[in-house]
Amino acid sequence: xxxxxxxxxxxxxxxxxxxxxxxxxxxxxxxxxxxxxxxxxxxxxxxxxxxxxxxxxxxxxxxxxxxxxxxxxxxxxxxxxxxxxxxxxxxxxxxxxxxxxxxxxxxxxxxxxxxxxxxxxxxxxxxxxxxxxxxxxxxxxxxxxxxxxxxxxxxxxxxxxxxxxxxxxxxxxxxxxxxxxxxxxxxxxxxxxxxxxxxxxxxxxxxxxxxxxxxxxxxxxxxxxxxxxxxxxxxxxxxxxxxxxxxxxxxxxxxxxxxxxxxxxxxxxxxxxxxxxxxxxxxxxxxxxxxxxxxxxxxxxxxxxxxxxxxxxxxxxxxxxxxxxxxxxxxxxxxxxxxxxxxxxxxxxxxxxxxxxxxxxxxxxxxxxxxxxxxxxxxxxxxxxxxxxxxxxxxxxxxxxxxxxxxxxxxxxxxxxxxxxxxxxxxxxxxxxxxxxx
Length: 438
Ligand SMILES: Cc1cc2nc3c(=O)[nH]c(=O)nc-3n(C[C@H](O)[C@H](O)[C@H](O)COP(=O)(O)OP(=O)(O)OC[C@H]3O[C@@H](n4cnc5c(N)ncnc54)[C@H](O)[C@@H]3O)c2cc1C
Known about the structure:
The protein is built from 11 helices and 18 strands. By secondary structure, it is of the alpha/beta class. The two termini are 36 Å apart.
């Protein structure tokens, strides 16, 4: 992404209301680095809990500049991987408990929208996972069984029913997850920023934190000012590495998406489109398609890329847009010639176990953090904000007593090791996907 205008979510909404930059020396109770879902939700819930505290957010560009403004707008309670994968890694009991907890993020998003009257095109559209071939059907059956075992609500759809919901390709069967939603993430985040500001949170934009000086009072420096705060919150997810704290715990992987002009009625009919359906194909490196509120198709190929130079930004990549377009037309030939109006990329923060970690660290125990969402941070980012506020309050509840709290993040020894490992892993997944297509 070069500018916000590359990104569909900034299309047709009022221009950026750029906030003030931090200027001069400040004292605060809590200083939060990062103005995405995590940072704004943390600010909101902390201020709500401690109205007397001065809570400041520092954002290097503008609120929504990072992944929170660039994602596909799927509101899910799932974490980085499928129920099947989680069940294999954690066992049935732990996965069940964890998902029961994380699925609260969907209702939390709904609650926040309602409470603050946020106009963000939200729809509880569910998630449709489709199988295009016989082997994918069997893979999907395994997914369905695992979902049932861990208590995730799903509905198995036979061919006719599946095709009536998504006619884009020759679907043989599908798994429907009803408890998920879709949203315009930028509208939602702006609504949350307004809600946080209305209770007294101060959000400073164009205020990159360049340096952190740890101590019982933490000092954060920007080019024009500084903040001394008792507690800080690291809400920088896939952008965390340059700051030094929690370095190389979360790896920036890149993912790209394209959005078409509004579809014609004929094209919508081909898709059997009803609302903002969110469709994924049952593969490891899947493609996904969702419809927007104004009937465009947003297409993502989840063939994430890791680049050796971890400090550089690779979120604008025309070769990726072209390959997305080719795949989209291969899948949906009736879209041939359609114009792509927006194309952009962003980072997802990957951890070695595909799970996030939320906690408190540092010599003075005053560095709070939440990161490593592995591509599922829209809903979870809100829950994380609530968890951080509960941790700060010393609360003893499921918000502070669950396996994600202070979960060690293994991190990586070096960028070259990650580069090799990511290519190895991708080769493995691609081979498995090819088998699923046979
Ligand atoms: C293409 C794409 C599709 C996705 N689709 C989905 C989806 O459908 N559903 C879903 O749940 N998740 C999805 N995700 C993931 C989701 O967007 C992220 O997990 C989530 O946005 C992370 O939120 P965050 O606030 O933690 O981080 P971010 O939104 O990345 O926010 C971090 C912020 O910190 C700022 N920052 C960084 N360094 C500094 C500094 N030194 N000083 C001040 N500010 C700093 C950055 O500018 C940025 O704004 C997707 C991601 C991408 C890229």
